[in-house]
Specification:
Jelly Rolls; elongated; 60s Ribosomal Protein L30, Chain: A; alpha+beta; 7-stranded antiparallel beta sheet; 2 domains
């Protein structure tokens, strides 16, 4: 009996120490959610920039993780119909449980970027083959907003991976300085404007201003987004290419803008939000009217809110 008691007493410090020791914790993320944008062929070389938000939004994605290994482009990604000429801007919240170093890995075929709290951490772009880049960051315990941009330009291959892991306590990286939260702007008149461009070639049949039923889900998604933003004003502007008379194009662009306005007002049911509607006809092209691709870009409806 005494021998058993001695063994237990000798083991007790080991058991206590083991119980008090915790394994390093990898970063945890909320779902990766964001918008998909169509990238015009002639804009491909521009890569990522604020201009991305001016492109036509063609859908949304929500992924629990980003682990789509290098593959044939026809395999695609879940929730995305396109296989070329699109970009994704994803957002998530990252939780760090320990003051330590963390290794981030970002892989893509045509290009990608990773930010923590709007500070660029990894820029993996410009080379059209699957490449994985890494960087180590020293982070303090807390929560951080992250953003990931993905770029799929050309056919044949595609791939998109992202991961993060605890990298210990001894690394050369400087401590990441979390940005101070911006002071809320309580004056809606000074709030920044946002916008989206919708292709008239997709929304309407030629020379028509009745919205095609197959594109209603895209408008519904926009309406839900705007209801949550409660904008001060929504401006809708119609545009056409140069085919046809000036009078016809101006009238058509206005009627298309009004059709979008009428649908959004009915769907949103928020009478407190005013709408401003106008038709510019062919007066404000964003591409050459000498090519069909350019004319298609010019046939558009711009929606801006602030």
């Amino acid at each position: 009996m005494k021998l058993q008691l001695i063994i237990v007493l000798l083991l007790f410090p080991f058991i206590y120490i083991t119980a008090q020791t915790t394994l390093p914790t990898d970063p945890e993320f909320t779902r990766f959610e964001g918008n998909i944008y169509h990238i015009p062929n002639k804009k491909v070389k521009l890569g990522y920039g604020e201009h991305v938000y001016d492109y036509t939004q063609i859908g949304e994605v929500s992924w629990e993780k980003i682990q789509f290994e290098d593959r044939d482009y026809l395999e695609g990604y879940p929730g995305i119909r396109k296989t070329t000429l699109f970009g994704i801007v994803l957002h998530a919240e990252m939780t760090i449980e320990d003051d330590a170093c963390y290794l981030f890995k970002l892989g893509s075929d045509d290009g990608s970027q990773f930010w923590i709290d709007d500070q660029s951490i990894i820029d993996n772009g410009g080379d059209h083959r699957y490449i994985e880049k890494t960087d180590t960051v020293r982070l303090n315990k807390g929560q951080y907003p992250i953003k990931i941009w993905y770029f799929q330009a050309y056919p044949n291959r595609m791939g998109f991976t992202f991961s993060a892991e605890h990298a210990g306590y001894d690394c050369e990286a400087e401590v990441f300085t979390k940005k101070k939260p911006k002071i809320a702007d309580n004056d809606p008149k000074t709030a920044p404007a946002e916008s989206i461009v919708l292709s008239s070639s997709i929304l309407f049949a030629t020379n028509e201003y009745n919205i095609r039923q197959e594109n209603i889900p895209e408008l519904d998604s926009l309406c839900e987004h705007l209801k949550s933003k409660t904008p001060r004003i929504i401006r809708i502007t119609g545009h056409t290419d140069h085919v046809g008379s000036d009078q016809h194009n101006q009238s058509l662009s206005l009627k298309r803008a009004e059709a979008i306005r009428n649908y959004m007002m009915k769907k949103m049911q928020t009478p407190g939000i005013p709408f401003s509607v106008s038709g510019q006809g062919e007066n404000q092209p964003i591409a050459s009217n000498e090519t069909e691709a350019g004319r298609q870009e010019n046939r558009r409806v711009e929606i801006q809110w602030e």
